Amino acid sequence: MKVVIIEDSELIRNQLVRIISSQPRVHVVGVTGEEEAAVQMILELKPDTVLLDLSLSPGSGLRVLKRIRAAKCASRVLVLTNNADEAIKKQCHAEGISGFFDKSTEAEICLQQLFDWLPPLPANEQLRLQTLRETGLLDVPEQEAFDDIAKLARDIAGTPMALVTLVDQDRQWFLSNQGLPVRETSRSIAFCAHTIQSSEVLEVPDAHTDPRFADNPLVRGDPNIRYYAGVPLVLASGEALGTLCVLDTVRRKLSETQLSSLKTLAHSVVGEIELRRKMLKLEQEVDRRRAAEIQIAHIAMRDVLTQLPNRAALMDRLDQLLRKVARSATQMAFLFVDLDRYKLINDTLGHEMGDAALVEVSNRLMMALRDSDTVARLGGDEFAVLLPEIGSLQAAMAVAAKLNAALGEPSLIRGSRLHFSASIGIAMVPEHGNTVEQIMRHADLAMYQAKHAGGGTAVAFSQTMGARAMDLLALENDLRDALQRDEIIAYYQPQVMLGHAGLCGAEALARWSHPQLGVLGPDKFIGFAETRGFIHQIGQRMLEQAMAQMVMWDARGIYVPRVAVNVSAVELREGYADFVDSALKRHGLAPERLELEITESTLAADNSIAVRVLEILRRKGISIAVDDFGVGYSSLGQLRRMPIDTLKIDKCFVDEVTTNVQDAAIVSAVVTMARSLGLRTMAEGAEDHAHVEALKRLGCDCVQGYVWSKPLPPEEFALWTLAYIRDSNHEDLTTQY
Ligand code: C2E
Ligand code: CA
Ligand code: CA
């Protein structure tokens, strides 16, 4: 309810405002103590109620009253005074006031009257308002559907006015207003605010005689309502949102038929409202999902740290641009930007600092480029730049130099003065390639050359760049994928006993089942993997496969006494023994069935951690073999203190063991010493039976070599083993060892 207070005593004014403010549904919209201002204020604000002091200075309250009534203002007026002159009272009543109160004693009663005019609130008001908002029908332009119904209602009732109303928190909003020029009125004077109290029709045959409405401004003044009949719009869920009502300026009554027709119409209004609400909800749900999708797409295409496009986004964009270039015969440059010495920042200053540095770098790259260029973060300290509108390689080189200059500017990051440089590889489209894969690989290769040149510089790809360097680069990327895709697999080579023929084990040897290049030997990737940190993963994969394989062979009755797995020196660190131990337990394989091969140099080097790890493994029952024995410089005496079980005599001694007396003598000495130390001997690389005979004579325990078989894939190894047992009639030996 909107209230204007006309009172010249500041004290009383303040009191009234304070008390009224305690009622949340009543709002004081204007306050003044002067006649002229009062009239203007009332006519302009059209309040529901005026609290009027009769004695104003300057001016007169009575005159205010007369003037506003003359101007057709029908607001309710409560008069406050302290000299109750009967003549003046009479004049006031003649102007249609709602009450006359003694300021000093009856102010409270006066305000109570004001509050009593507030229509009651439905019990479910909160929910009702929420549902009302969900219809999305407040403050919308005229709707034909509702207008049609209102017109029909007006025709049926034969009244000049019909409305479809929605009762909002402080107002009623007319969804349709037939015969009434306004689209909303205050809730405090709304008939409909009473109608929504129940699910019944509210009919007011004569408002003049109804105490609830007799002094209602809509009754006393425009539009001079005298008759009202409203049907509440009750949703299926129970909320009465508004009404369908008909109004007249004369008193009357509707027939039962007319009333029931109104109810039917109200029903279709409700149906329409429910439909709108459902559609709005659906629309919002669609919007919400679309926003979520956009968000997800954004995340998928962005690097989280720098907010730059990520690798996927870059490849996407590159692909698009490649198509465009192909059509337009223009040029484009792709720059592979790799920060120099970034690892140093990360390692010495910490990861937070490292992250901050990457953000800084990404900002600088962006600042140095045009809007049409693309900067992306490929991962780690690798960035890429796409220059779609570049005229020549020289121009691309100039941009690269500009980028390095931008990176070289010193800046303060979290209190540290840092500056950067990058090795930049450039590939031009179409000169250096026309597929995403080619362009990225060639730029990467060129970047590698820039690194070699000492960093801080750019190098363009050229076809003459060594194929070897290219292989290496390709390898690193490929190997990462290979591990992901489980392309590193184990082949097995048999190890055969000499004294009493039989299988003593198999060595698991790594192979890379490359999707394009076929099966690659370990010389293509093991050394590389050792320097790039991949060897741990490879070693673990090999162990897992070997153990799983043994269990499978066991299950098929193919008894392989022991499997030997190669272990690089770098793998022998804290925690390795635990890993092996738990893997054995997981596969359910006895420790005696596993041998680990380490090179002689691993032991010879002053590597106390490795030795300690080997001791733990051996104590658990796992065999340790020294691989390539004889090529290192460890003396047999040193071996005495080492935690080992087997010596693998290197192939170079075996090659000429039949012809070279000295080699034969070395093998003999090794065998003798090994026996005295309680070690087993295994000769590697025997290629023919002459080798086998010589080694047998020299007292070697086992022989591994092409003479028996090359390393084989698991299934072929199984077949080989079965054939070997059958051919040599050694069925008994499969379980003998
Ligand atoms: P290694 O441990 O000395 O393995 C023996 C190598 O000699 C194998 O080569 C095997 O195929 C080869 N060989 C066996 N018998 C003969 C023969 O009669 N004649 C000839 N010419 N060669 C024979 P491969 O499989 O190419 O392995 C090479 C090396 O790669 C291995 O030498 C080992 O040092 C390393 N390696 C292989 N698999 C792994 C692994 O899983 N982990 C680690 N760390 N290294 C591995
Ligand atoms: Ca080996
Ligand atoms: Ca070897």
List all distinct small molecules, including ions and cofactors, that are bound in this structure.
Answer: ligand C2E, calcium ion
Q: What characteristic shape results from the CA principal axes?
A: elongated
Question: Helix amount, in percent?
Answer: 40-55%
Number of strands: 27
What strand line-up does the widest sheet have? Answer: 19-20-22-23-24-25-26-27
Gyration radius (Cα, Å) is 48 Å
Q: Which structural class do you get from the secondary structure elements?
A: alpha/beta
Major beta sheet summary: 8 strands, mixed, barrel
Low-confidence residue ranges: 731-737
Describe the model.
- The protein is of the alpha/beta class and 737 residues long.
- It contains 26 helices and 27 strands.
- It has an 8-stranded mixed β-barrel with strand order 19-20-22-23-24-25-26-27, surrounded by 4 helices. A 6-stranded antiparallel beta sheet has the order 8-7-6-11-10-9.
- Helix 2 runs parallel beside helix 3 (61-70), helix 13 crosses helix 14 (393-408) and helix 18 packs parallel to helix 19 (576-587).
- The longest helix is centred in the middle third of the chain and has 46 residues, at 256-301.
- It is elongated, with a radius of gyration of 48 Å.
- The model is unreliable at 731-737 (pLDDT under 50).
